[in-house]
Amino acid sequence: MAQIRVIAGKYGGRRIDAPDFSNARTKPMGERIRNAMFNKVGAEIEGAKVLDAFAGTGSVGLEALSRGAAHVTFIERDKQAQKILAHNVALLGCEDSVEIIRTSVNNWLETADPQGFDIIFADPPYHDPQLSTVTKILGLLKHKGLMVLSSPGRGEGPNLANTGIVVVDNRSYGNARLTSFRRG
């Protein structure tokens, strides 16, 4: 079992578990990219209702909680990642501020909370970017809500036609790209 660090906030410096990177199907977002992403999100995270789609072991959503998010909903279908995520939530003692949904994002979308989210983090597997699912997730953004999508450095993005959602930032970090979307 490997470990990664929560970067800043309430749990800053604490270590959480991650799968052994050499043979894992789920790989947590690197610290450099997570830090850049949260520096861009800034004060918007305070008190936010957050969705961590394709959550893996929870490093992004737990970073959001650490930095002041009010609640995080994690969605993860991989059983090994679910176990590590639940362990990490217990390790930080933040069970009252999270909900772990153990299914695919696409299945969950069929019954998703129509009230939406202030911030959505989507980090689908690079080998299966699930663009149609990512496009559906954008529909859960509240007015002025922000979604950050992590994707391979080159590739397509979700279809934004007739959504009222615009790209507000698009940056590459090695083989990864972070694209930020905002609902008008």
Could you please describe the fold and organization of this structure?
It is built from five helices and nine strands; from the N terminus they run E-E-H-E-H-E-H-E-H-E-H-E-E-E. With 184 residues, it is an alpha/beta fold. The strands form two sheets. A seven-stranded mixed sheet has the order 5-4-3-6-7-9-8, with helices on both faces. Strands 1-2 form a two-stranded antiparallel sheet. The model has no long low-confidence stretch (mean pLDDT 88).
Which geometry do the CA atoms define? globular
Structural class of the helices, strands and pairings? alpha/beta
| Strand line-up across the major sheet | 5-4-3-6-7-9-8
What is the rounded Rg?
15 Å
CATH 2nd-level architecture: 3-Layer(aba) Sandwich
| Low-pLDDT stretches | none
Helical proportion?
25-40%
Care to count the β-strands?
A: 9
Strand proportion: 25-35%
Write the layout of secondary structure elements.
Blueprint (H helix, E strand, L loop, with lengths): L1 E4 L9 E4 L12 H11 L7 E5 L5 H8 L4 E5 L3 H14 L5 E4 L3 H5 L7 E6 L8 H8 L2 E12 L12 E9 L2 E8 L1
Task: Please give a quick description of this structure.
With 184 residues, the chain is α/β, with parallel strands linked by helices.
Give a quick set of tags describing it:
184 residues; alpha/beta; seven-stranded mixed sheet; two-stranded antiparallel ribbon; 25% helix; globular
